[in-house]
Every structure is written in C-alpha cells, then in structure tokens.
Amino acid sequence: METLSNTHNRWTAKQFIVLAGIWLAFLISFITRLSWSTIVPAAIDSLHFTVQQGNNYLTAFYIGYAITVLPGGMLADKFGYRKLLLAAVLGNLVVMAAMVFMHGYWDGLALRFILGLVSGPDLSACLGIITEWFGGKKRATATGIFNTCTSFGLTVINLYAPTVMVHYGWRATLGVTAFFPLVAFIFAYFALKGNPPYPQQFVVKKSNGEVKEETAIERLKKAINNRSVWMLAITGLFATGAKWGVTNWANLFIVKNLHFSLVTAGVAMSIFGITSVISMVVAGWISDHSTLSRHAWAAIFMAIFTPTIIGFTFVPHGNVAMLYFWTGAMGVGAFMFSTITNNLSVEVAPADQRGTVSGFINAFNQVGSFLAPVLLGQILAGTGSYVTSYLIIAAFPLIAVVALMFVRESDANKYDEVKD
C-alpha cells in the first residue's frame, strides 16, 4: 500500500503539462534575447555598425527588461499569471518578426528595447504559475526543472543560428527565431488552461462595513516592507550579478588569460552548461526532500560559488583536464542556488503578492546582471589583470550568503503541501 507521503509527492499529468508550458515559454524568452549575440558579427558588418553600436543592442534589451520586471509582476498579480505570460510570449513573437525587416541603427535599437519591455513579466508570471499548480513539497523541484530552460536556451540558439546564418544570412536567422515564440504561444495557451489547485488569491479588507480589494500600490508597499524581500533583493544583486558576470566573461577569460583555443573554450562552456542544468534540478529535489529551511540550502549552494570562481581563475595554463573540471564546478556554483532563491521569491510573499514580490526581487537581479560585466570591464581596464577582476567578483556570493541568513520563509506558503 502506498503511503500518504508518496501520494502527496506524485505529480499529476496536468502538472507535467503545465511545467512544460512555462518551460517552453521562458525558453523562448532566452532564445530571443540571445539571438542578437549570436548574429552580431554578421549583422554589424551588413548594417555597417560599429562594435559599440552592436553592444548597445544588448544593453537596450536589459534596460527595457529591468524597467518592466516590477510593474510586470504587479500586472501579473492583477490580471493573472497565465494572461501576462501569454502576453509576453506574443510580444516576443511580434518584435522578433519585426526585427527581420530592420534597416537602420535606431529602429533595431528601439525593437531590442521593446523586446526587453515585453519580456519583463515573464519570470514573475512563470513563478506565480508554479505556486498555483505545485504544493510546497513539489515546488522547488518544479522550479529547478523550470530553471533548466535558461541554460538550455544557450544550447538551442547555438544549434541552429550559426548554420542558418552561414547559409541564409542573419535576417533568416531572426526569422527562424521568431518561429519559437509562435510555437510556445500555441502550446502554452492550451497547456495552462484549467483550474489550479492553489489559485491566486487577493486580500480584501473591510472599511466602514465595505469589502475593499487592496490596490497594486498597497500590495507593493506591503511587499517592500518585508525584511526577507529586501534580503533576497540584495542576494540577487550580488549573486546574480556574479553569475552572469563570470558567465559572460568566461570564454574571453579562457582564451585571453588562460591561452586555450576557441574550440577548447567552447567545450569547457558546454560542460559549464551541462553541470548547471543538472545542479538546478538536484537543488530543487534536495530542498523539497529535506527538513532544512530553503534559505539555509540557498546559502549552502551559494557558498560553493566563491571557491569555484577562484579555482577557475587559477587553472594552470595548458592543463585541459583542470580547465574542464573547474569550469564544470563553476557551472554548479553559478546556477545551483538560483532554484532556491527563485522559489523563495514567491514563498516569502503573501498569496496576493507573488508576482509583485518576484518582480521586485528580479529588478535587483537585472541590475546586478547589467552592472557586474561592466564592473569586470572597469577593473580590467584599471588593473590590466583578468585574475584580479575575477577575484574581486568572487567575493560577491559571500555577501549574498550573509543576506540569506536574514531571510525567513512565509509560514502561510511554506507548508501547503498537505493540500497537494
């Protein structure tokens, strides 16, 4: 006879379908944002852009994204997570299709900025959907599987984009990329239908005998008045910044400082991607099947990051085996914690504020993601040392670990697995 615990831990077919829907939807968000990085060498030559102008397209996306992550989360709370996610996917489809026909610098720059704007609500909406469909003892595992789409996006874009670009040009590559949000929209539209077991709930308050729903601004004020929310925001600023700082600079570091070939660097970063995917799923499973609090596990996983950056920084020249080992280890350190911190961003929030809180925290994540690579560049320019740049950023996860010690999960959301 199966135990009640086993019954609670079993996933339903609908949960698998829902998770596939949001996984695909967020995957295409990464594919569309990474598409410019892939085609930029050919595109800037064709359009006669400077390298700096090409880089401005990357910056434009992240500025737009950072602007809308918080209001996007608030809108998700107001109109529903499913509606906002479908709107974000549809926006990606329209913008990517429009970019096929761009001809000048400014229209392309505007489209990249708009792509960032329409993508802002995606993460908050996806995390909100997870809370609606998965109870507490399934939620971190679901989040870990969901998070794998970020690393998988790097793989997918590199599987087709270079080949299409070589044979048919960069415009055709953008056209193929626009096909992904179309597929994701159709699949997610049907996959996310139905009544979730833990639906979004809105707090109402009585005033002079009248029942009044709290406004978005009132919910926002309540959200930012929460110590755990601020600690997770600080965590995201430093830890997510370090993650994307070292990720974006890893290929350059391997080739320019460690003096390995581009091919070897590519293999190392493939290992980085594989270990990051595995570690995110493992982190979620551990958290769901442990009595230790989520914030404690997040701190443990995050503490791994600093020594892996240091180990990667001091890989001996010419030692390929050590390069592969430390790059793989850094993939674990850089991504394993994100499963738990993403999960915490909705679990520290009241049921009516999950989108708002995750959007607020994600805004700090985006600031860190934007500033860390810039900081690395400034340190490199000032010191001329790649090693110094990496060692300084290696301290960032430790600051995040301290912040996590002040996080406390919400009792209202932590133990709802009994209803699962």
TrEMBL record:
Database matches in Pfam families: MFS_1
Membrane-spanning parts: 16-36, 56-77, 84-103, 109-130, 142-161, 173-192, 229-246, 258-284, 296-315, 321-340, 360-381, 387-407
Principal location listed in the UniProt entry: membrane
InterPro entries: MFS, MFS_dom, MFS_trans_sf, OPA_Antiporter, Sugar_P_transporter
The UniProt record lists the keyword Membrane: yes
GO biological process, one term: phosphate ion transmembrane transport
Any GO molecular function: glucose 6-phosphate:phosphate antiporter activity
Keyword tags: Membrane, Transmembrane, Transmembrane helix, Transport
Source species, domain of life: Bacteria
GO terms under cellular component: plasma membrane
Ranges for domain Major facilitator superfamily (MFS) profile: 18-412
Protein name per its UniProtKB record: Sugar phosphate permease
Classification of source organism: Bacteria, Bacillati, Bacillota, Bacilli, Lactobacillales
